[in-house]
Amino acid sequence: MKQKSLQASLLEILLPLALIFGLVLLLSLNVEQTHQTEAAQAPLESWLKLIVGYLAATAEIAAALVIGLAVIRGILLYLLQTFSRSRQHIDSTEVVRLQLGRVLALGLEFTVASDILRTAVAPTRQDILNLGAIVLLRTLLNYFLEREIQQVEQSRSKSYQNPEQPENT
């Protein structure tokens, strides 16, 4: 049992460190950028870049809408619970944080999709490295966000289970 918890805690430390190291490594690579002229591009490629650019912009707009609406909803819920005379105020603010955290994770997925779309058409080596760095950074953020959500949900489920269980003395 102790071996399992030791492995789990070691994994919780090493995984983020590996992601941070990978991010630093990707950002430290300096790749020469080759410039392509517009005349060298095929006409189909320019149309494809235009379409993919619109799709990527749509994904970014979706991310902004999802996150913006969640922030507004979180503020309204927090204000409602602050001004209500509820004794579960601390638990309710935790609910608002969890809901906002879940939506932020979804918004991060939309922004990663946007970055992948932008790099999909005729990427240069530098574009791929930049995408790798962005994806690593967002994965790291998402990892910590999901971990915090899971920890809070586990503590909440334990606190709900404890009053129901009879104490053995």
Cα end-to-end separation: 25 Å
State Rg. Answer: 22 Å
**Helical fraction:** over 70%
Major pleated sheet? none
Mean pLDDT: 77
| Oligomer state of the chains in this structure | single chain
Number of strands: 0
Secondary-structure-derived class:
mainly alpha
Work out the helix count. 4
Please write the string of helix (H) and strand (E) elements.
HHHH
Shape: flat
What are the low-pLDDT stretches, counting only 5+ consecutive residues below 50? none
Query: What fraction of residues sit in β-strands?
Result: under 5%
Question: What is the strand and helix layout of this fold?
Answer:
Elements: H1 2-28, H2 43-83, H3 89-120, H4 125-164
Helix pairs in contact: 1-4, 2-3, 3-4
Output the keywords.
169 residues, mainly alpha, 4 helices, flat
Describe the 3D structure.
This protein is mostly helical. It has a domain at 46-153. Helices cover 83% and strands 0% of the residues. The chain has four helices and no strands. It has helices spanning 2-28, 43-83, 89-120, 125-164. Helix 1 (2-28) runs antiparallel to helix 4 (125-164) and helix 2 packs antiparallel against helix 3 (89-120). The chain is flat and about 70 Å long. The mean pLDDT is 77.
What is the gist of this entry?
By secondary structure, the chain is mainly α.
